Structures are given as C-alpha cells and as structure tokens.
Amino acid sequence: MFASDLSSAWLAGFTVCISLIVSIGAQNLYVLRQAVQGEHVRACVTWCVISDAVLVAIGVAGMSQMLEQRPGLAYYLTLGGAVFLLAYGLFALRRMWLAPDAALNADERADKRSLAPRSLMSVMAALAAITLLNPHVYLDTVLLMGSIGAQQQGVSRWTYVMGAASASLSWFVLLAFAGQRMKGIFANPKAWRVMDGITGVMMLALAWWVASGVMQMD
C-alpha cells in the first residue's frame, strides 16, 4: 500500500508538471535557442530542472499559502514579470529587424559565433531572469503544483516533487535534443529572424496578458 501511494504521488507530480511546461514559453524558447547554437546546453537544462524542483518544493512547503495571504507580494511579482516580458519581446523584435549578420552565409555566421561565444555567466544570468521574473513560474509551479503537492501525506509530498523533477528533466532533455537536430534549419539566417519574430510576438502577448492581470489586482 505504501509503495502504491508513493507511485501515485510520483505519477501525479510527473503528470501535472509535464502538462504545464510543454507549452511554448520564454524559458522553453531560450533553451531551444541555446541548443540550436550549441552554447552551454547542459548548464541550461540543469538549471531548468533544479529550479523547477526547488520551486515545486517551496510551494509544497507552504509558499503557496503565503502568496495567497499576501496579495501585495503577488502584485509586485506580476508587475515585474510584465515589464521583463515586454523588454524581452522588444529586444527579440529588435534582433529580427536589425539582424546585422542576416546577409552572412551559414559558414560565415558559424565562424562569427565561434569567435565571440557568450560566456556561461551571461547565458545563465539571462536564463535565471527568464525563469524567476516570469509570473507564470509562481502561478503554475509554486501555487498550482505546490497546492496539489501539499495535499499529499508525509514522504509522498517529496515523491511528488521527484515526479515533477523527472518530468522537467525529460522535457528539457527532449527540447535540447530537438534543438540539436534543428541546426540544419537554422544554418539559414532567415530562420533566426523568424524565430526572433515569433519569440518577440509571444513575449509581447504574454506581457499584455500579465499586465491585464496586474490591472485587475488594483
């Protein structure tokens, strides 16, 4: 019976987490972009998995109740997320329109990237901002997943967290693999402009959606 309870808790964590993270958002697009570029992919996947597990654990441990009891904190988190998403979307559209290397061929583009790769710190700082300044992280991972996990009893709560971490690991490894397989497509500079355009539009749409939530809080 105990083993059955643990299995059910693990499956619940896996199922809920995978259903929430498969939607294309800022974090997924960023990891996909890094996978296509081949820059610090393992570090990105590691960060995403650990941050998901920690945030779910924090939610299970009681932060979900704290956010519900302190709407002011949720307000400022949401406002900061809207501003960040707006800035991220505008920068993506700026890359699409300016695209200083859009006329380069694939070999020249690859050479340019190899000469000036982004540092691990800069890549991880951007990913951390995308993760922690996105209000969806707190609404979905902490509040929703944390509330569900908090209903588990005893050690099953942490089995639930492990299930969520397993889902996160499976998804981001798959995303990284997909990015590696798509390198041929992104050898064409126009593909990068399309990706930046899609990213920009999606981030602006998310910023508008989040800002609408902020106005409802007033």
UniProtKB/TrEMBL annotation:
Keywords associated with the record: Cell membrane, Membrane, Transmembrane, Transmembrane helix
Subcellular location field: Cell membrane
Tree of life domain: Bacteria
Main location: membrane
The keyword Mitochondrion belongs to this UniProt entry's keyword annotation: no
Membrane spanning stretches: 12-32, 44-67, 73-93, 119-138, 158-179, 191-211
Descriptive protein name: LysE/ArgO family amino acid transporter
Organism whose genome encodes this protein: Comamonas resistens
